[in-house]
Design a protein that fits this description.
This protein has 127 residues and is α+β, with helices and mostly antiparallel strands. It has a single domain, classed as Aminopeptidase (3-Layer(aba) Sandwich). 28% of the residues lie in helices and 32% in strands. The chain has three helices and seven strands. The protein has helices at residues 16-23, 68-85, 100-108; strands at 8-10, 35-39, 42-52, 55-63, 90-93, 112-115, 118-122. A seven-stranded mixed sheet has the order 1-2-3-4-5-7-6. α2 (68-85) packs across α3. The two termini are 16 Å apart. 32% of the residues are buried.
Length: 127
């Protein structure tokens, strides 16, 4: 199991309202599985996903608008670490529900079209 370091931690039931606010219309994650970034007592990012075939599939991703540039790449690094922890070599995400800033960040972080409207990138080694 991946050992998370601040500002990242597993979500709790108490995070659900903030997570839902970040995700907007999109479905909320299972708090037992989701990872959040909390700084100064505020949850500013959320990531939820799981293994899906030969890739780690991001089911939910949201980052507070003012934090996309700094927290966005860092929470994607958590996705890479979770994928590697599960023995997977890629991370996949459906960008269609994401806001333009997050879609641009995915492109800048090396995600490329992978078919069926999804974007994929090889796991970026951590450490």
């Amino acid at each position: 199991m991946l050992n998370l370091h601040p500002p990242f931690r597993r979500a709790t039931e108490g995070d659900l309202d903030t997570v839902r606010a970040l995700l907007g219309e999109r479905a909320g994650p299972d708090p037992a599985e989701a990872v959040v970034a909390e700084e100064g007592g505020t949850v500013a990012a959320v990531l939820d996903g799981r293994p899906s075939g030969e890739t780690w599939r991001v089911d939910a991703l949201a980052v507070a608008n003012e934090r996309v540039a700094d927290l966005g790449p860092r929470i994607l690094a958590v996705a890479d670490a979770l994928a590697a922890d599960d023995g997977l070599a890629s991370v996949t995400i459906d960008p269609r529900a994401l806001d333009p800033a997050l879609r641009a960040m995915l492109d800048a972080e090396g995600f490329r079209p992978g078919g069926n409207g999804l974007m994929v990138r090889p796991v970026v080694p951590q450490g």
